[in-house]
Specification:
By secondary structure, the protein is mostly beta strands. The chain contains two helices and 46 strands. It has a domain of 109 residues. The chain has a 17-stranded mixed beta sheet that branches. Strands 1-3-6-9-13-17-21-25-29-32-35-39-42-46-45 form a 15-stranded mixed beta sheet, with no helix packed on it. It has an eleven-stranded parallel beta sheet with strand order 5-8-12-16-20-24-28-31-34-38-41, with no helix packed on it. The protein is globular, with a radius of gyration of 23 Å.
């Protein structure tokens, strides 16, 4: 079907191809949603105008969603609004779902499963330019569920990404934050299904990626977000240039648990990485055979957390916090593991006869800061005051566990290095 250039209302549930040439249009229902063998392909292309896409039926796939098929929505210009409940705005379930918005300041709202979300399929939310806002409860903004790939990519603009953190709003409470903060599974998250504590059926997580190339961007979320992996999943965030603000709570910002990968690479700008509320298990944190890495190049950056963060490896994980250039600030609660710390476990020295693999494995935690005049502070929660960190500091090297301590060794190594100059060859590999 081809529509004209006037402002129109479209409500189609079985249209294979819709092309609208212009006008400020309103689309309702299952536009660009392929959800059955009867309609394996659904494509909608809007060429111009300030458009509204709205679906208030949680049972309808829409706005670039493919279930057992391919759903593609392309909007070429205008300040557009996208609103749906579930399975929308770039979602694939045993299929392919793509939403591509070429230009304009756009607004995306969703409850769950979209904005770049895949389960045994591929979901992509792509935006080329404009100052865009994205909001959801969870499962999206670059989330790869079991067997899936989810990508949320934005090229240009000052963008706002929100995964609702408050349980009182979205009712997805996580026990790691006393059920006050939500499990979001969003913003570059690869999430598997752990079944050993329930029905025994486990599924490996997929690949979740959030890519933003240019602009001063703000990321706001709760738990299990921002370059986070869970149960054999991989979560990635890539930030190109701009002064960016990352605010989240727990298991977040290059973090993960159980045989997974979580990573953030930020190429430039004065960035703030801040954990709030329970404020832990993040900013390069690994639990149970996880590889976690946060690499930030250039700019005067700030890192704030309370517990087990800032380059912290636990249960035979590897955690790397690397900052290259700039006058940087690091803050952790006094007495907490972090700043290049590998936590010791007795099973490293005394093998469990049933599960001896801890004794064979290795764990590494590294905080590496190259260049700048850097500050390392401890926060005393009882007195609510700051003091210089007892071990870390500008132009210093330290070990955690410390050399000579009873827990040093056992294939478990933590180190912090702050130096004036140097390079990490791996970060220049593609130059």
């Amino acid at each position: 079907m081809i529509a004209g250039t006037s402002s129109e209302k479209h409500a189609y549930s079985d249209c294979v191809i819709l092309i609208d040439l212009g006008g400020n249009d309103t689309y309702t229902g299952a536009i660009a949603g392929a959800a059955s063998f009867d309609l394996p392909i659904a494509i909608a292309i809007d060429c111009a105008g300030d458009d509204i896409y709205k679906n208030d039926n949680s049972g309808l796939a829409s706005q670039g969603t493919g279930i057992l098929g391919a759903g593609v929505l392309i909007d070429c210009g205008g300040e557009d609004k996208y609103e749906a409940l579930k399975m929308a705005q770039g979602c694939g379930l045993f299929g392919l779902g793509i939403l591509l918005d070429v230009a304009g300041d756009d607004d995306y709202k969703l409850e769950a499963s979209g904005q770049g979300c895949g389960y045994f399929g591929i979901g992509m939310n792509l935006d080329i330019s404009g100052n865009d806002t994205r909001y959801l409860f969870g499962d999206g903004q670059g989330m790869g569920g079991v067997g899936g790939i989810g990508v949320c990519a934005d090229y240009l603009g000052d963008d706002q990404y929100t995964a609702e953190p408050l349980e009182s709003v979205a009712h997805r409470g996580d026990y790691h934050s006393e059920n006050r903060i939500n499990v979001n599974a969003a913003q570059g998250a690869g999430m598997g299904r752990r079944g050993d504590g329930s029905d025994g059926h486990s599924w490996a997580g997929g690949l979740g990626a959030l890519l933003d190339i240019k602009g001063n961007d703000h990321y706001y979320s709760g738990n299990w977000t921002l370059g986070c992996g869970y149960w054999l999943g991989t979560g990635l965030v890539y930030e190109g240039e701009g002064n960016d603000l990352y605010e989240s709570v727990y298991f977040t910002q290059a973090s993960g648990a159980h045989y997974c990968i979580g990573a953030i690479v930020d190429e430039g700008g004065d960035d703030i990485h801040k954990l709030w509320e329970t404020a832990g298990a993040g900013i390069a944190f690994g639990w149970d055979y996880t590889v976690a890495m946060l690499c930030d190049r250039g700019g005067n950056d700030r890192y704030e957390a309370k517990i087990i963060s800032l380059g912290c490896a636990q249960i035979r994980s590897d955690a790397f916090l690397i900052d290259i250039g700039g006058d940087d600030y690091y803050q952790l609660q006094a007495g907490q593991q972090g700043l290049g710390a590998a936590t010791y476990q007795p099973s490293y020295d005394i093998p469990n006869k049933i599960a001896p693999f801890d004794a064979y494995s290795k764990s590494f935690a590294i905080l590496l800061d190259i260049g700048g005049n850097d500050t390392y502070n401890d926060w005393d929660k009882d007195k609510d005051k700051l003091s210089p960190n007892a071990t870390g500091g500008n132009n210093k090297t330290w070990f955690s566990p410390a050399r000579g301590s009873e827990h040093y060794g056992a294939n478990n190594f933590g180190i912090g290095v702050d130096v004036d100059s140097g390079r990490v060859p791996e970060t220049e590999f593609f130059k």
